[in-house]
Design the sequence.
């Protein structure tokens, strides 16, 4: 994973039909809406036939990162976490973004002054004093972020072990949970859109990086820098860190641009990209304003079904992983 991918050029983009990974029924080329409906039904059938996801043999800690803003990091964190928990797994979400959007979407209070991730990494407060249950989803807990976290990037600079403060706090919490017979299956850390000390703390605490890539023209811009940073953290701070998962977000099956970007990303990272691409959908963007994941807001929507399917793929990949 050291090569720097090129930004896709529209002139070299393949046709939508040749590159979209989800198969389009061949008998129905003339009615794209019919084909979409057919895909939706097939997906609904697939995800509803799985009642529980398989537990991993160790706690898997994902860092959801991309320094590019607005690519779907928070939406992905919230909805993959919701999908895993709704399918019977124990999940902890760490909101590491001072914007606190993850906390909002999961209905966790995070007004200024609310104790959360800032207290964990700056003051060294135990996570079990700070983690809150998501009121709408059993098995899902959240370490919230408030705007107070905005100061942490600067305050961390002068602190001892500034890059590994989240890691220490998280490891203590995970072993306490495991000892109490309440092992956490998945941890998802939602990063801010920067490569500062908060993101570095996430990458030292995590084992797997999940990169959401928005299916739009500048999708791959900045990815080379992200990969170089991950390489640097692997070399100096966390040898176990790996990019295991890339998720295509805001995919629009009707545009050649989306199909082209998807093709480009799959060509560069053939073994990392999930087969499921998350479609652009109104329901997905509406859900946070009701403090909901799209799965609890509209469980039959294309966004909900796609995030369930992407989460299922993630759990399947975990079978081959080696524990930390
Ligand atoms: N599949 C989707 N369909 C429609 N809208 C989406 C989808 N995914 C995300 N969005 C919307 O796009 C915007 C950016 O998404 P999100 O906040 O998840 O990105 P982000 O990478 O976390 O942003 P930031 O870098 O600011 O933290 C939000 O308004 C969100 O509701
Ligand atoms: Mg975000």
Sequence:
């Amino acid at each position: 994973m050291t090569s720097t991918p090129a930004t896709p050029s529209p002139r070299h983009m393949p046709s939508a039909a040749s590159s979209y990974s989800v198969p389009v029924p061949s008998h129905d080329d003339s009615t794209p809406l019919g084909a979409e409906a057919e895909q939706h039904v097939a997906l609904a059938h697939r995800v509803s036939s799985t009642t529980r996801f398989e537990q991993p043999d160790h706690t898997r800690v994902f860092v959801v990162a991309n320094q590019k803003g607005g690519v779907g990091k928070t939406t992905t964190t919230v909805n993959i976490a919701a999908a895993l928990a709704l399918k019977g797994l124990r999940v902890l979400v760490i909101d590491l973004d001072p914007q606190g959007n993850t906390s909002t979407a999961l209905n966790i209070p995070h007004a200024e002054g609310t104790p959360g991730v800032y207290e964990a990494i700056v003051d060294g407060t135990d996570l079990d004093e700070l983690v809150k249950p998501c009121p709408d989803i059993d098995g899902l807990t959240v370490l919230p972020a408030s705007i107070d976290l905005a100061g942490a990037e600067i305050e961390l600079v002068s602190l001892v072990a500034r890059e590994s403060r989240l890691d220490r706090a998280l490891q203590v919490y995970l072993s306490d949970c495991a000892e109490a017979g309440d092992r956490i299956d998945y941890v998802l850390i939602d990063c801010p859109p920067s490569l500062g000390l908060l993101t570095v703390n996430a990458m030292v605490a995590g084992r797997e990086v999940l990169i959401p890539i928005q299916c739009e023209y500048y999708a791959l811009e900045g990815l080379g820098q992200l990969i170089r940073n991950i390489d640097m953290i692997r070399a100096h701070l966390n040898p176990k860190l790996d990019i295991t998962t890339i998720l295509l977000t805001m995919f629009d099956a009707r545009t050649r641009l989306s199909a082209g970007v998807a093709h480009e990303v799959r060509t560069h990272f053939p073994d990392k990209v999930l087969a499921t691409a998350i479609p652009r959908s109104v329901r997905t963007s509406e859900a946070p304003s009701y403090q909901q994941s799209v799965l609890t807001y509209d469980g039959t929507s294309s966004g909900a079904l796609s995030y369930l399917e992407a989460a299922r793929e993630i759990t399947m990949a975990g079978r081959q992983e080696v524990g930390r």
The chain is about 40% helix and 10% strand.
